[in-house]
């Protein structure tokens, strides 16, 4: 099944070679059970993460159709859960809160576009078909079919919020 996820991730890019190499090895580490090969994939994955300054744990749950545009300086908490057809851009932080009413990590729905330098923090739920504008700070629940921008986050309802932003859905 995970191999199918890698194949579906490839479909999100114009050419297979456009997919960041660390994403390819992220999926390979998740899908391989043969230990020597898994160890090799882990080493390559770790090196590629260091080069790109990307913090994504191999245990992070991310659905099929992941698209990473400008794959640098991205941090995703290992406890975060991301749906399918997610677009993530440079400088994105998806992190947990360690105290307060929103202690925990985000759960992000399907077909969510996350703009450059956006931060999603704490135990929040982001619905399906949500566009999170660049430089937004999201620490509240966001219903499906919405656009989020600003700090504190301002939510505007909009049907087909990601239309024109998420291409080649799987």
Please explain how this structure is put together.
- The protein has 170 residues and is of the alpha/beta class.
- The chain is built from 3 helices and 15 strands.
- The strands form 3 sheets. A 6-stranded mixed β-sheet has the order 3-6-9-12-14-15, with no helix packed on it. A 5-stranded parallel β-sheet has the order 1-4-7-10-13. Strands 2-5-8-11 form a 4-stranded parallel β-sheet, with no helix packed on it.
Summarize the structure.
With 170 residues, this protein is an alpha/beta fold.
How is the secondary structure organized here?
Blueprint: H1 2-11, H2 21-31, H3 35-52, E1 54-56, E2 61-62, E3 67-69, E4 74-76, E5 81-82, E6 87-89, E7 93-95, E8 107-108, E9 112-114, E10 119-121, E11 125-126, E12 130-132, E13 137-138, E14 146-149, E15 154-157
Helix pairs in contact: 1-2, 2-3
Mean pLDDT: 93
Radius of gyration: 16 Å
Q: Which H/E pattern describes the elements?
A: HHHEEEEEEEEEEEEEEE
Q: How many angstroms separate the termini? A: 14 Å
Runs in which pLDDT lies below 50 for 5 or more consecutive residues are none
Q: Strand portion, in percent?
A: 15-25%
Structural class of the helix and strand makeup? alpha/beta
Helix content: 10-25%
Total count of strands: 15
Q: How can the largest sheet be summarized?
A: 6 strands, mixed
* Sheet with most strands: strand arrangement: 3-6-9-12-14-15
Shape: globular
Number of helices: 3
